[in-house]
Each structure stands twice: as structure tokens, then as C-alpha cells.
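Fig. S4 source data, part A: sequence.
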Amino acid sequence: MLRVDQAGEYGATRIYAGQLAVLGSRHPSARVIARMAAQEDRHLAHFDTLLAERGVRPTLLQPFWSVAGHALGAVTALMGPNAAMACTAAVETEIDKHYSEQLRALGADEPELAATIEEFQAEELEHRDTALAAGAENALGYPVLSAVIRAGCRAAIALSKRI
């Protein structure tokens, strides 16, 4: 569970890094993206600490997620700010589902971890809502773009659980 969460937060930081690399710091969307990226950095640092404390190794796919995440961020930003926001909305929709499944699986067994996941889930939902309000659904081909990104997220979760 922790391996997957750490991988997801790592991937999110790479997506935002790719978007900011393309859009630059002066683009109107950059401030919003940078704020979301800072929250993802905090999530990643927390899961990095939990991995170390509990002796859980990160996914062996981390180098791949680094490249893939950055590329996804850069490509969607090259498509325009609405596509960058569509990427965020799609990713956060899947992360919300993933965190909900984890909370059900945890039950009352790990109250501290559950509280962390609930806190992070709320922030991920805020990211999704921010992206939707910023025009995610106006991206060219939004339904297809969203479906492809969401499928990629589900695949990344499944692979990170095993590798």
C-alpha cells in the first residue's frame, strides 16, 4: 500500500514538473500548478518517511515513472493549459478512487495511516476540482484524453503494487 502511494505521489511531482517546464513560471496557470505541486511534494516526503520507517522498498519502476510522469506533464502542457488541467483532473479522479479503496481495506487497523490518507485524499480532490474549474473539460478531445490518462493511472497502480 505504501509503495503504491509513494509511487503515485512521485509520479504526480514529475507530472507537475513537466507541466511547469513547458508553461514556465510566468504562465497564468503556473501559480495554480506550483501550489498543487508543493502539496504533492509534501505528500511524497511523508510517504518517503513512511517507507523508510517501515522498511518498505519503493517500486522498482520509479525511474520509468520519472520519465513517464515528466513526459505526460510536458505533453499535456504543450497541448495547452486546458489539457494540462485535464491531466490533473483525470489523475486525481483515479487517485480518489484508489485512496477510497485503501481506506476501506485499512478499516480501523491503521488509524494514523488512514488519517494521512484522508487528508491527502481531500487535497487530491481539491486539485481535481481546481483543474475542472480552470477549464479541464474544455481541452480538445477531453473525454478521450481523460480516459487514456485514467487508464494509465490504473495500470501504474497495478504495476507498482507488484514491481
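Fig. S4 source data, part B ends here. The radius of gyration is 15 Å.
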